[in-house]
Design a protein that fits this description.
This protein is α+β, with helices and mostly antiparallel strands and 205 residues long. The chain has two helices and 13 strands. Helix 1 runs antiparallel to helix 2.
């Protein structure tokens, strides 16, 4: 996060094409199970697991390198780095394109609320992450000779604010999905810090 003039610039995290990688993992594991069932030999399971995950890791790394060569990480220009519950905050999302088409045929955005819970189950520590809520964010394209730029209004609902405790975390993200004119697809996850709304008692200013 950095400040430029009167605005704050928040960088995206994890611009690595996660959706495609998840599909590769699932496909690889299904293939592994099918092959192991057909062959019927448990001795090949470990080598197959290593081979599948090595292949997935290789594709994942190549995808990440390809993204970094084609685009810079997405950034959000917003007036403040702390958003309040039940507020509306205008912002601008930008992503500079270094190679390929700079024209986006589709730009969609949504606000996402995720919860991370860690707890003790017997002798093991268990962790769970799930999406609590998500809602669409309207986008308004604006001219940008360097890549993609859209204006958005972040309407923060009255859900839990950001929490960062060791065993319980509540995290907000702005997720922006891009489809470029040449078919390239990618998403950006912008972390947002959301605080409780400030209450001013009557008679005070």
């Amino acid at each position: 996060m950095q400040r430029t003039g009167a605005s704050t610039v928040i960088a995206s995290v994890g611009d690595t094409g996660r959706a495609g990688t998840v599909g590769l993992v699932v496909t690889g594991l299904l293939t592994l199970g099918a092959v192991a069932t057909l062959v019927g030999g448990a001795f090949i399971t470990i080598p197959l697991i290593l081979a599948v995950f090595a292949a997935v890791l290789g594709v994942f790394s190549a995808r990440a390198v390809g993204i970094s060569r084609r685009m810079d990480p997405g950034v959000l220009h917003v007036a403040t780095d702390v958003l309040l519950l039940s507020s509306e905050v205008p912002a601008t999302f930008r992503r500079r394109v270094k190679r390929g088409s700079r024209e986006a045929t589709s730009v969609t955005a949504r606000l996402v609320l995720e919860e991370f819970v860690s707890y003790q189950a017997g002798t093991e520590r268990q962790t769970q992450t799930h999406e609590v809520w998500s809602g669409p964010v309207p986008t308004q394209p604006r001219p940008d000779p360097e890549g993609v730029a859209v204006d958005v209004v972040l309407r923060i609902p009255g859900y839990p604010p950001t929490i960062d405790a060791p065993s319980n975390k509540v995290r907000w993200f702005l997720v922006v999905d891009l489809t470029m004119a040449d078919g390239f697809t990618e998403d950006s996850r912008i972390p947002l810090h959301v605080a409780p709304a400030v209450h001013t008692p009557r008679g005070r200013t």
